[in-house]
Amino acid sequence: MFYYIIDILGTIAFAISGVYAAMSKKLDPFGVFIIAFVTATGGGTIRDVIIGKTPVFWLINYTYMYVIVGAVIFAILFRKQLRYLRTSLFLFDTIGIGLYTVVGVEKGIEAGLHPFMCVVLGTITACFGGVVRDILCNEIPVIFEGREIYATACIAGGVSYFLFNELPIKSDIIFAAPIVIVIVIRLLAVRYKLALPAIENKDKR
Amino acid sequence: MFYYIIDILGTIAFAISGVYAAMSKKLDPFGVFIIAFVTATGGGTIRDVIIGKTPVFWLINYTYMYVIVGAVIFAILFRKQLRYLRTSLFLFDTIGIGLYTVVGVEKGIEAGLHPFMCVVLGTITACFGGVVRDILCNEIPVIFEGREIYATACIAGGVSYFLFNELPIKSDIIFAAPIVIVIVIRLLAVRYKLALPAIENKDKR
Amino acid sequence: MFYYIIDILGTIAFAISGVYAAMSKKLDPFGVFIIAFVTATGGGTIRDVIIGKTPVFWLINYTYMYVIVGAVIFAILFRKQLRYLRTSLFLFDTIGIGLYTVVGVEKGIEAGLHPFMCVVLGTITACFGGVVRDILCNEIPVIFEGREIYATACIAGGVSYFLFNELPIKSDIIFAAPIVIVIVIRLLAVRYKLALPAIENKDKR
């Protein structure tokens, strides 16, 4: 029940970040909805497709569609007030990527994949919704530009899942602890403005 | 047989719209063909992949490949005369999205999905070829910009499929009527210049 | 063993071409790695997904991940020296697309597809990694612009596979000869600056 609520809050935060991106491009309501939808479901869709778990999750579990439709309508109606929710949305988003990472890792384990690949799947689940959003909006994906420790936090969370799994602790904690680690890393990175440096080839051009 | 002809005409119209888009970017013949191919098959490919119906339709049914190769060669050779066909192509395209919507809905029913998800699949089938075309051409997808009632017509057509299904009418009509509805809505929208308004956040920037 | 080495060299060359593209966009290390990874694996991933061969190849065979991680670290550390390797990398890349074409063709045959579709799969395997790389970097895919005979070489190689298959020769040669054909066509095209002309519609605008 607790994780269900986190999942819903994460989906809402992701969908609203899609609405923001779409509004800055002056899209129509249908375009806004599509961008919100792919932002919230894109990572899990790619995960399900590459491991062959079809129909993909949101075709089977209708909750996501209802939640996203509701979030988009809410975000469009109250778009002027959304900035007051900025901190809440950032927190939902951060909690959401933590949960999505662990969900992706567990889907990888279910599919019988190597731990390394499970971490990759978790990171894809958490990060690729935003990548598809940025591609549809004709931007270079923001997570590639190093302004936020985003993927790095997911990778650390995914790796910690397997470390905790080695310890004699309860499965609830193995599930929850990596989420906390993702959240803490991201909050610290934003608080102290940590970012990965851009790599460029000064020698060229 | 009748629907088969519609399918071919729709595929031709979609492929030629891809050729147009590719020519405006000055691509080489191979690039033109790829753009035409993804425009005509992209929506159905995404549909087949997310419901897990693989190999995807055009790998099994070679007709699409032949039709698209023919349409591309025709469109490249007669590119100066194509504007005289503009009205015909618009009609083929409109009939095509109507048919694609219903085909997508029925594939969703076959896969055992909820009616709501079937409508989503129908809309994806009809609309996402154009979305992939625009992404490959490095443009924001045109259907997101509200210049045409495109997705809205597909959604209405898909919903009407299930409404007609409740009525005591023949399956032929349940198949045909939603196609007519998609066509009528789109023709009316273009005739009376109906469009969805852009949503933007004037408060920001 | 011989083909295994070619596969590794091709993967390295593809990954490094991704690192180059990412560095010109000043991405962070994670972005560089993702671009390198999709460049090296994107074609095969699309192939596996559309024929329904999941989990996709790199989720099962970890070698690709290790090789790409190694190639990215190498390319980032020695980015100033990479230009001295330009010719080697071009050769690896050319050998790689030859091999990828034949691997794709054989996967299509395994999946029971028509020879025409097998050639298409081979071309997708060899070319679409670069297409996804360019989309993620917000560029029009370079292979669409006709500056290099790239896809054309793959198509010729794929077709030759089925022609050799008709001849009374050993399966080793049926596998190797098309690779040589792809390589020779591409080298000749680059040597003599052969390119397909852009198709545009001067009549319009």
UniProtKB/TrEMBL annotation, chains A, B, C:
Signal peptide: none annotated. Keywords: Cell membrane, Membrane, Transmembrane, Transmembrane helix. It is found in: Cell membrane. Residues 5-79, 91-165 form the Glycine transporter domain. It comes from the Bacteria. InterPro entries: Gly_transporter. The keyword Transcription regulation does not apply. The chain crosses the membrane at residues 6-23, 30-50, 56-77, 84-102, 114-136, 148-167, 173-192. It is a multi-pass membrane protein. Belongs to the UPF0126 family. PANTHER family: INNER MEMBRANE PROTEIN, UPF0126 INNER MEMBRANE PROTEIN YADS-RELATED. This is Trimeric intracellular cation channel family protein. It comes from Zhouia spongiae.
